[in-house]
Request: fold
Amino acid sequence: MLETTRFEGRQRVRGSLALALLLGVFSLLIIYIFPSIAESAADIDAMIDALPESFREGFGAETYTTIEGFVAAELYQFIWVLLLGLYMAYTAGGTLADDVDSGRVYLVLATPIARTQLVLEKFLALFVPIVVLTLLVPLFVFGGTLAIDYPLDPVYLIAVHVLSIPYLLVCAGIGLVLSVVFDRGDVAQRGGIAVVFLLFLLDSVTAGTDVEWLGAVSPTRYIDPTEILLHESLELGDAVLLLGVALALVLLSVVSFEDRDV
Amino acid sequence: MSGHTMAAIEVNGLTKSYGETVANDDLTFSIERGEIFGYLGPNGAGKSTTIRQLLGFQSPTEGTATVLGADVRDQRALRSVKSRIGYLPGEPAFTESVTGQEFLDYQAALKGDSRREELLELFTPPLDRKIREYSTGNKQMLGIVQAFMHDPDLLVMDEPTSGLDPLKQEAFNAFLREERERGKTVFFSSHILGEVRRVCDRVGIIRDGRLVTVETVDDLLARGGKRVRVHTAEPLSRAELARDGVVDFESEGRVAQFTFTGDFNRLFEELSGHRIVDVEIDEPPIEEVFMHFYGGEDGA
Reply:
């Protein structure tokens, strides 16, 4: 059991650590400029209010004068929800399609492993970047806010990370489905990026309009770092919903991989 | 052919089409336990398609096959015999970022590796290097090691000697013969008749998705005929010879050359009308026997 997850997971460790370091350093840079914004005479919040609602919603920009609002918008909405969502969809897109594309999958499927198990184990290996990032990046963020003397509440910081795991799993699930449907790795990867980005846009542009309900199909609607960090409200129901969707996407992948030609 | 419950592989009306293209057209043949069976055909004939169906990677459009008794359409049944099958794909592809050692460890975890060390004495890929750095020959050797390392009863291999240098090819062929002595069944595809002649008991020839013939190597060579070269005083034309049995007739001045598969008495009767300067009758080059099945309609 889990031979494939171990094999695949090991290959993801270095990349995940590098990504965590990169995001960690980037977080420090962002946090480092916060005091100058907070203490600046310009009324930045008035500027934010003047932005179109879809923009504010898309980037969760509500207030830049509190560390919670600033970190939520600059770091979490943008890096965590958008970029990391795209990254997970892209990475998952490569899982099976790349193997089928290159012919690597033959040497694995020739062994007594079940196709279902292969799909599940490959998906499980995607937990490596998620876990590494979830463990390391908050340390940078918390350390950074301590250093500038505007400490975040660690409870809600951890909550942002934990509650975004179901969201990232949905993005990975989208990539996985595409990876099973397409037999070219680059198509599945680009497709994953396109789908997650379009869903993000759909959620943003419909915010505050009559067709706001359209954005409800986007996973980005169910994760709101600003809500958690700034308003300290935890939508556990949304997280459970995302987990359910992620599970459904994985099941869909398993079923469609079972009978397809490779 | 059906009814041999002891057959290692039994292919029954196997058909695979991709849209309009029929890659395998109603193939029926069987491979007995303990034999080495060569699956011959030019590139694009449908050899790999057959093999991929035997391993359950692709499902037949029509017909089916059993491998060690398991129906290839039944993934569960097929999976239960996979630990007894060794498989080597054509131009095997690996995760390039791992070392040969890591790859073999992964494969070992999936299916076992009781013969790994022994095989690594014969086939020597640089295990501590990343597969990315491997030459084609090294990748092929790594593929061979993984195919045999769990000591399977049946080997299914797609062009196993391609990419190996001649010495390793010879070592591989000798190894295959030893494996047959140990009771293994081997099914491999090739487009090189020479190597098939050296190791196989029987061959199946596939062309354009259709099975042309299945026969023993001895019969195939006998049917391949002889290469005849006749030097006559006056030029000899194709029309002067019997229509039967003369293949690939070529003439250059007073020297004519052809492959002859018919009755020599009739040939000599026909030639007796000519003044013959010289005659040579030889074993045909093995590739020509092959051409006999692949070449134009007059060879079919």
